[in-house]
Write a structure and sequence with these properties.
CATH class: Alpha Beta
Order of helices and strands: EHEHEHEHEH
Oligomer: single chain
Helix content: 40-55%
Strand order of the largest sheet: 2-1-3-4-5
CATH architecture: 3-Layer(aba) Sandwich
Radius of gyration: 15 Å
Largest sheet: 5 strands, parallel
Number of strands: 5
Structural class: alpha/beta
Distance between the termini: 14 Å
Strand content: 15-25%
Number of domains: 1
């Protein structure tokens, strides 16, 4: 069963985001999804933004996580270049299923996020329920 679990990458703003905010939703996602899915949290690495020697590593490790994931769970709570790049790479280049949650109404979403997120829901809880309903192996 362990090997059959799908992997989810937790994508969302980190740079210029208060560390507590960047971690809090990811911890909640782990509580909502962790038992059924393998979760990849980019906050597990101890890199510092805006340090030249870390920039390439940050991007490469995050892109590796996106490649390793079956599903991308996105916190689309504000415009974020890194998050947008991860979404585009996952959906366009890799054909991954991208589930986002956002406080924005559809009319206020970036057309790029609307186009490359497979589904955008109103809250993390709704997104987790969607993922659980559609990507959990059903026991017969």
């Amino acid at each position: 069963m362990e090997n059959n679990r799908k992997t989810i990458y937790l994508s969302g703003p980190i740079m210029d985001e208060h560390a507590g905010t960047a971690r809090a939703w990811r911890e909640t996602a782990k509580q909502l999804l962790g038992g059924r899915f393998r979760l990849l949290d980019p906050m597990r690495r101890a890199f510092v933004d805006r340090q030249v020697d870390s920039a390439n590593e940050i991007v490469e490790f995050d892109l590796q996580d996106v490649r390793d994931a079956d599903i991308i769970l996105v916190n689309y709570n504000k415009a974020s270049i890194g998050t947008s790049m991860e979404v585009f790479y996952a959906a366009h280049d890799l054909g991954r299923f991208v589930v986002a949650f956002s406080p924005f109404e559809y009319k206020d979403c970036s057309p790029w996020m609307a186009r490359y997120c497979t589904k955008i829901l109103g809250s993390l809880e709704e997104a987790a329920e969607y993922v659980n309903n559609h990507f959990t192996e059903q026991q017969v």
